[in-house]
């Protein structure tokens, strides 16, 4: 899967943009793009949205980015 997504990151202060859902989602999609994991989740061509291609593999990545969802439907509701 490439490098550990949280290995080189510092913990953001409470309430910062990266601890909120949109910030975490942006980090996740950008990480997948950088690591060649676009088959899981990726930005659409114009960069204005993202698309989930593999919900099962996505669920395995979510905890590494601070998401508490364990079911895809819960993640979808957050979107």
Layout of secondary structure:
Blueprint (H helix, E strand, L loop, with lengths): L20 H14 L6 E3 L6 E3 L2 H7 L10 H7 L1
Antiparallel strand pairs: 1-2
Sum up the structure in keywords.
79 residues; two-stranded antiparallel ribbon; 8% strand; 35% helix; single chain; mainly alpha
Any overview of this molecule?
The chain is mostly helical. Helix content is 35%, strand content 8%. It contains 3 helices and 2 strands. The chain has helices at residues 21-34, 55-61, 72-78; strands spanning 41-43, 50-52. Strands 1-2 form a two-stranded antiparallel sheet. β1 (41-43) and β2 (50-52) form a beta hairpin.
Summarize the structure.
With 79 residues, the protein is mainly alpha-helical.
Low-pLDDT ranges:
none
Cα gyration radius (Å): 12 Å
Q: Give the DSSP E fraction (strand runs of 2 or more residues).
A: 5-15%
Number of strands: 2
Tell me the series of helices and strands, N- to C-terminal.
HEEHH
Ends distance: 25 Å
Major pleated sheet: 2 strands, antiparallel
In helices, the fraction of residues equals 25-40%
* Anisotropy-based shape: globular
Which strand order does the major sheet show? 1-2
Number of helices: 3
- The averaged pLDDT comes out at 83
Structural class: mainly alpha
